[in-house]
């Protein structure tokens, strides 16, 4: 019998061979479950977390949790596992490399989303799961949903990919490169060989700020901040100043600057720069067609994508946010056009890419309706 | 008589008092003119450059230059002057502060777009200009066009603001803050007190890369780069590696990464970090309503904007690019809705904000047509 409500657990494997060819030793997977596995062991909902998320879905996606809501532990055995390279418990650049006795740091081998689903499937096996009823996730979580279905045909019955794509776009690779450049220009970064005492916080914060903007839209910022000036006294006490900056005698300090600085600083308290760069690389490798067509088949990229999408289980629910400028709605339309009998729900919102988290009421309604349908 | 074709000139003033209250001494203005001033001294076209532009309009906006084109030196006496704080000839953080004998660096006083037009008007006076037939510019250049008309009522007959706004938005202030954070996290920045021998090139390059992305659209990147991998050998020779990075043994190096690194590096050869940060601050101050309404008038921001827009000369040509994510089309619609009898041309293009430069053929057609109309 599987664990009961709200379990925070760690699964450990002696070895795990990655797609890149490297074998990791003493691999941990931090995961969390809610609800009870039924006797058929198939009432499983797998929630896949986005870039900076963790297994604590009840924290970062709380509004969807609860009885008769999308994530209903009285109905599903809900599972979420942290991905490789993330700082929230699963083996990552912060973990000790058994061969050196020191943290991997920048020498942590590259991992892929396929590595994550293969690893997480071993945890589900350990829990006695026979199949997945539904896999759901947004952004990187949506990429993971697609890979669950493609890596294990027949194992996942329904899928809800949101604000995501079939392959990481040039645009997203480009933003990843910008973040890489930002972090590596921080003197404290030292090519990734920084110490815990002196991490590249300013670079990581700046990269996070750039990320935050790409996750939203100009409209949402205008509505929230406009040209509002931050009270200088509260700026001085609440906001980290740039070294050498004199907030008191500078030109106006806008509320939106204050917001970004606070967000950047709090992010650095919980995240790690090498982990951040690692996951960017992981997302860069995302391409559901990679290695899935015989190399002697001389077909172009579009035909390859059509062929792979056609192999996915029919009738997923694909969700878009119309103001998403990171994974624009057309990328989800491509998914819905290619997967047999897909249902596409486009949510009109100024929340941008983050809409899959922000528009929780409408997301919940769409998911509940989909889960009730046959 | 004004100078003849293609003049590259410098105008010097003993003092110039800025909006912030500081008086600059020994102020230079780098400017360029093309064509001949007519006997009425009123056939003047003022071109206002964007953020990283210069007076060399014939270089950065070449396709619009020529007989029977938008910028026709046989018809107009064309003038473009470099803004305060820009590294291309006008007084800036790179200039020597007469009071110290050293470059101003980060101590260069803040300037506004209103300072620029007041300063450039002195140059026009020196050239004998009696009025401006048309002022044209995109992005920051478009802000400058609006300020020309508002600072000198009756002096500018026609206006062509493109891809611009009535006030710098929260979104643009936020991107400015991200760039500020990026540059200041570069160890070489030293609060702006870096030397010419050791400038913060990696931070400036990373900020430029972020900027480049905001100037384009995901579609344009997808079409140009997709997931194309850069040949490793050419990457090694053509691209600046991040310190500590081993391009030969990294995961795939994408063409879009190579492109961004090359663009970032070449930008640093011509631009200066303090100038970059200075102009961001200048744009942050852009708000055509600032100080233009009696403070005892208790009206809200929207009403203030409506009131100021209504004072602008009628019948400007406002140009939008529909994929602009930095100054979205709705911001130009606001201008066109508020300025009497404004004509709005929305150019459909995947080029994003940079569309005012990239879509030169369609921009040229729209401008020529407007200039021919009465």
* CATH class call of the largest domain in chain A: Alpha Beta
Distance between the termini of chain A: 27 Å
What is the CATH architecture descriptor of the largest domain in chain A? 3-Layer(aba) Sandwich
Q: Percent of residues of chain A in helical segments?
A: 25-40%
The CATH topology of the largest domain in chain A corresponds to: Rossmann fold
Sequence-ordered SSE layout with sheet pairings:
The structure is a homodimer of 374-residue chains.
Chain A: E1 7-17, E2 23-34, E3 44-48, H1 57-60, E4 77-81, E5 96-97, E6 102-103, H2 113-126, E7 132-138, H3 140-151, E8 156-162, H4 170-185, H5 201-214, H6 218-224, H7 232-238, H8 255-270, H9 273-284, H10 301-309, E9 317-321, H11 329-338, E10 343-347, H12 355-358, H13 360-372
Parallel strand pairs in A: 3-4, 3-7, 7-8, 9-10
Antiparallel strand pairs in A: 1-2, 2-4, 5-6
Helix pairs in contact in A: 2-3, 4-5, 4-9, 5-8
Can you walk through the features of this model?
The structure is a homodimer of 374-residue chains. The first copy, chain A, is α/β, with parallel strands linked by helices and 374 residues long. The first copy, chain A, has two domains: 7-168 and 289-372, Rossmann fold; 172-282, Rna Polymerase Sigma Factor, Chain: A, CATH 1.10.1740. Chain A contains 13 helices and ten strands. Chain A has helices spanning 57-60, 113-126, 140-151, 170-185, 201-214, 218-224, 232-238, 255-270, 273-284, 301-309, 329-338, 355-358, 360-372; strands spanning 7-17, 23-34, 44-48, 77-81, 96-97, 102-103, 132-138, 156-162, 317-321, 343-347. Chain A has a six-stranded mixed beta sheet, covered by helices on one side. A two-stranded antiparallel sheet of chain A has the order 5-6. In chain A, strand 3, helix 1 and strand 4 (77-81) form a beta-alpha-beta unit. Chain A is globular. Mean pLDDT of chain A is 93; it is low at 1-6. Chains A, B: The active site is at residues 139, 324, 353. Chains A, B: Pfam families: Abhydrolase_1 (PF00561). Chains A, B: Belongs to the AB hydrolase superfamily. MetX family. Chains A, B: GO terms for molecular function: homoserine O-acetyltransferase activity. Chains A, B: Keywords: Transferase.
């Amino acid at each position: 019998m599987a664990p009961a409500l709200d379990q925070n657990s760690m699964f450990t494997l002696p070895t795990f061979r990655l797609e890149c060819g490297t074998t990791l030793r003493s691999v941990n997977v931090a995961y969390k479950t809610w609800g009870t596995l039924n006797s058929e062991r198939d009432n499983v909902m797998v929630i896949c977390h986005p870039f900076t998320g963790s297994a604590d879905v009840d924290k970062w996606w709380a509004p969807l949790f609860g009885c008769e809501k999308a994530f209903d532990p009285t109905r599903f055995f809900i599972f979420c596992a942290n991905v490789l390279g993330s700082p929230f418990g699963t083996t990552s650049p912060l973990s000790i490399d058994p061969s050196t006795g020191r943290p991997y740091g920048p020498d942590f081998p590259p991992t892929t989303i396929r590595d994550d689903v293969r690893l997480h499937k071993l945890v589900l096996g350990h829990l006695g799961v026979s199949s997945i009823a539904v896999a759901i996730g947004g952004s990187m979580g949506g990429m993971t949903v697609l890979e669950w279905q493609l890596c294990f045909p027949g194992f996942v019955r329904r899928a809800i990919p949101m604000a995501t794509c079939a392959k990481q776009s040039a645009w997203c690779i480009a933003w990843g490169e910008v973040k890489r450049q930002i972090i590596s220009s921080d003197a404290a970064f030292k090519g990734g060989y920084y110490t815990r005492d002196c991490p590249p916080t300013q670079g990581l914060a700046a990269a996070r700020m750039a990320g935050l903007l790409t996750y939203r839209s100009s409209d949402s910022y205008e509505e929230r901040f406009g040209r509002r000036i931050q009270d200088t006294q509260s700026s001085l006490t609440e906001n980290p100043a740039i070294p050498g900056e004199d907030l008191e005698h500078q030109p106006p300090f806008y509320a939106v600057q204050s917001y970004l600085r606070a967000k950047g600083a709090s992010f650095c308290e919980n995240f790690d720069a090498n982990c951040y760069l690692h996951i960017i690389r992981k997302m860069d490798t995302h391409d559901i067609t990679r290695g899935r067509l015989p190399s002697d088949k001389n077909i172009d990229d579009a035909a390859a994508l059509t062929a792979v999408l056609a192999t996915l289980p029919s009738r997923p629910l694909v969700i878009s946010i119309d103001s998403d400028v990171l994974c624009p709605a057309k990328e989800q339309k491509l998914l819905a056009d290619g997967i047999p009998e897909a249902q596409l729900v486009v949510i009109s919102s100024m929340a941008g890419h983050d809409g899959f988290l922000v528009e929780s009421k409408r997301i919940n309604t769409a998911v509940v309706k989909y889960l009730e349908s046959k």
